[in-house]
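In this section we walk through a basic example: taking a raw amino acid sequence and producing a predicted 3D structure, encoded as discrete structure tokens. The instruction is simple. Fold the sequence below.
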Amino acid sequence: SRCYGYYSSICSNEETWKAYSNQRKHCQILNWRCFENYGTAVGQQCRWIYLLAAVPFFLFALTGIAYGAFLLYFLPALLCVVQFIRPTIFLWATILGMFTCGSVAYLFETGKDLLGIIAGERDKIFLNAADSSVFTLLLVVLISISVALIRWKPELRIK
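The resulting token sequence is shown next.
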């Protein structure tokens, strides 16, 4: 058997060793950082997405200072920065959940407002061009970050 030392705990036969060896080669070819701690995420070549995800939270935290909502938005931004530094599946799922819930809520409100406008009711979101453009930009950012988080899901290290 070609399994030595540390690797003998992961591979028990030649076929398993070849599969594990090929996976490590693939990991090194793509220049992914592989962590040695169990439970940490690997394969995060696009960790910058978490810094991008922190930007809306930081902006909301800064605008929320006057209204006492600083911590409400600062803590999720801090989670995004921690995920950038030390990726884990748990934080990834938490951040994905926040952005997916935000996307769904904003899409629901947009659809409700558009249907209200068609029915002749007073609009709530699309009051003027500035509000409409900022709201639409926020919706695009939320959906884009949600899709990027799904696309670049971290993988667990094989033990």
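Looking at the output, two observations stand out. Confidence is low (pLDDT under 50) at residues 1-11, 25-40. The longest strand covers residues 41-42. In the next section we compare this with other chains.
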